[in-house]
Amino acid sequence: MSDDPIRLVTIGRIIRRRWRLLAIVAVVGALVGYGTSVLFPPRYTTSASVLLSGQWEERELLTQAEIAASSAVVDRAAAALGWTGVSGSELRDRVSATAADGNIIKVSGTAETPERAQRLSDQVAGEFVTFAARIAGDDTDPDAATGPEALRKKVEETDRRITDLANAADPGQTVEGVQARTELEKLRTALQEAMKKLDEANPATSKAGMVVMGPAARPTGEAPPTRMQLVVAGALLFFLFAVIGHLAAARVNRRLRTEPEIAAALGSALLGTVDVPGGGSAHRPKGRGARAWIRRLLGVDTRWDLPTPQTSGDEAGRRIRYRRVCARLRNQLPGARRLLVVVPDGDEIARRAAGQLVAEAGSDPSASSSNRGYPMLRVVEVSVSQPMVPDRDTESGALVVLSAGNWTAGDLAGIAEACADGRHEVVGVVVAVPVRDRPTRSAGHPPDDATGALAARAHATGGSV
């Protein structure tokens, strides 16, 4: 594909012409995904919610979520569960905690079975509440824990003592009695305000209140990735890799596709382009055996990157193209009576075009006129890997017939060098283009003698046709 941009039509052509191969690759990817799901058993995940009372800032909630999934909490949960072969470090990879709206910490646990996932989430949530209460001071020194309560009792006793003193201080309406009772009431109010501020400043009473909001729900489905997800992901991944592989192979493909590039590689002029009907099957190799059968089964025996053949015109229009090529040969080499037609081995389209050229040159009505007939053509097939052209005999040059998109510049340069070694000058190039034949043909359809004309030819040392 050289440097052409990748378009959707290109991907559509890959899918249309390689759908068998892509389907098999997708099935292989699905099997790989299924095998992965067997190696990694299914997991189940559930969550337990912990409600935090009081006013909490967002950063404080995030801190509590980190504490819930910390090793201090998970290790205690692992010790309480006592699962064989499961350590606290392994459980830390299965436990997570997030801060939700409404001062709620969601503790999630993942295990091999729904029952274990439920137990893990409940146990970690309970250990988190216990650990948070211990940090807040609920389970610290008993003297420190009972200090605020003892102080509250002292204040209550002092309040009662103040009441007694107020009642005993000069029950009359003297000035001294009124002042004493006023001072005692001020003292009572100051003590109550001090206790209120103490309660508000105590974190154990404002934020230590945590409660687990019921047991975790038992999960009913597997946690992602599920077996079905792995199977689908494997099929899609292999399918995409196959498509990308086709695009990459087409990107690095250096086969020549245009007539000027082909003519430049052979060092000669382009004499014309001819149509070959039935081009779809012409690209299909004729090999036999198990390998060829597998290639046909997978649909890789034909090229996908070649453009879709256009619908051909009628037989008369196609023959005009061949006659024009023969006329250009006659005009370019007026004294030439014989020419060698070189066809790359394996190029079925070019072979058919060469046969039609031989038939048109042999049916020239002006062949009896002096220096007016078409040259006689002799076809030889040349191996591209080891090109060998017969030595020059009575031929006046070589005409190269080939199809576009099948050969690189190096392949064509080798053919040109083989012609030069055989003392044949490349007098022209003819490019054969596959086309789709029309369903109905004209009444004046000539006999199909193109293939028959090639039946009598030789390959490397063939005789005249």
From TrEMBL:
InterPro entries: Bact_polysacc_biosynth/exp (IPR050445), LPS_length_determ_N (IPR003856). It is a multi-pass membrane protein. Residues 6-68 form the Polysaccharide chain length determinant N-terminal domain. It is found in: Cell membrane. The keyword NAD does not apply. The chain crosses the membrane at residues 21-40, 228-249. The keyword Repressor does not apply. Keywords: Cell membrane, Membrane, Transmembrane, Transmembrane helix. It holds the Pfam family Wzz. Belongs to the CpsC/CapA family. This is Wzz/FepE/Etk N-terminal domain-containing protein. The lineage of its organism: Bacteria, Bacillati, Actinomycetota, Actinomycetes, Kitasatosporales.
